[in-house]
Design a protein that fits this description.
Largest sheet: 4 strands, parallel
Distance between the termini: 26 Å
Strand content: 15-25%
Helix content: 40-55%
Radius of gyration: 13 Å
Structural class: alpha/beta
Number of strands: 4
Number of helices: 3
Strand order of the largest sheet: 1-4-2-3
Length: about 90
Amino acid sequence: MQVAIINTSGNVGKTTLAKHFLAPMLKAERVSIEDLNSGDGEADIELGSKKFKSLASELMANPDLHYVIDIGASSVAAVLQHFHWLVGTRAN
């Protein structure tokens, strides 16, 4: 299972929810996507939004991988651009 936590506002509890509830409950690795702000330094994987496209491709190819993706407010626009590209690709 793959779950993404996303909100355009900072300090709303995305990391807390991902770190203390979802990742342990789902026995998943936590991925932090941050561009401007620093993550908590405890994510299993920390990436900038420019690397999200390759991560998303990997996840689509391997649906059995378990990840909780914590998308920081500074990275929302770039990550959503990827989904726009993805939807356009699937429609064809």
